[in-house]
Amino acid sequence: VPREKMAPLFTGTDETVFKPGPSPKREGTDFRVLYHGAYIPLHGMEYIVEAARMTEGKGIHWDLLGWGAYKAKTEALAEGISNITFLDKVPYVKVPEVIYKADVVLGVFGTTEKASRVIGNKIFEAMGCARPVINEYCTGYPEEAKNCKAIKFVPAGDAAAIVKAVANWQDANVLAEVSTGLGKAMVGINADEIKLIMEERGK
After folding, report:
1. In 3-state terms, what secondary structure has residue 36?
2. Bridge partners of 37?
3. What is the rounded CA–CA span in Å between residue 92 and residue 95?
4. What are the residues facing 65 on neighbouring strands?
5. What is the pTM of this model?
6. How many angstroms separate the CA atoms of 183 and 130, rounded?
7. pLDDT tens-digit profile of 94-137?
8. How far apart are the C-alpha atoms of 149 and 19, rounded to whole Å?
9. Is the separation of the CB atoms in 162 and 109 below 8 Å?
10. Which residues lie below 8 Å from residue 129, measured CB to CB, with a gap of 6+?
C-alpha cells in the first residue's frame, strides 16, 4: 500500500459512555488518583505503586481498578501502603462512574518497547470524562500533544516524576479543558472523519 494512502487514526473511545460528568465525588478530603486497566508490564504498575508509597500521609489516595496476570504481583508490591485501594472490577459502562470520583487519571508508565509508541485507551476514556491525565510521552502522540493542557507528561519508569505531576494537579485543583484542542481531536474522530480520510486517499 502506498504510504500516501496511509494515515494514523486515534483509537478514541465511545462518547456515549465516556462523557463529561460531575466534579469529583470525594470520599473524605484526599486528592484521588485513579488507575484503571490491565495489570501488565506495559503500564508500569510498579512505578504507580512506588509513587503511592512516596505520597503516604500527604493527602493523596490512589485507587487501582484492574485485572490481569500481574494483579497479584501488584497487590504484593502494595502491601503495607496505606493510601492504595484495589477496587473491584466493574462492567465497562460503569467505568465512567469510577472515573468521576477521581481528580486525575493515570495512563502508561512502562519501559517496554510497546510503551514507547502507544496511547493507552484509558487516556481517551479519562479525557472523554473531562478528567486530566498523567502519562509518559511517547512517539504515539502527535507533536501538538505537548501543548495539551489536559495532559502532564513524565519520563517512562519514573515514580518521582509521577508524584510531581500529581502534586502539580493537586495544587491547581481544577479540571483540565479537554473539550477543545487535542482533547477534542483525540476523542472526537468519528465515522464521517474516517470516511473523509479514506476518500482523500482514493479508497
Report:
1. strand
2. 66
3. 5
4. 36, 87
5. 0.82
6. 9
7. 999 999 999 999 999 998 888 888 888 888 898 888 888 999 98
8. 18
9. yes
10. 18, 19, 20, 21, 96, 99, 100
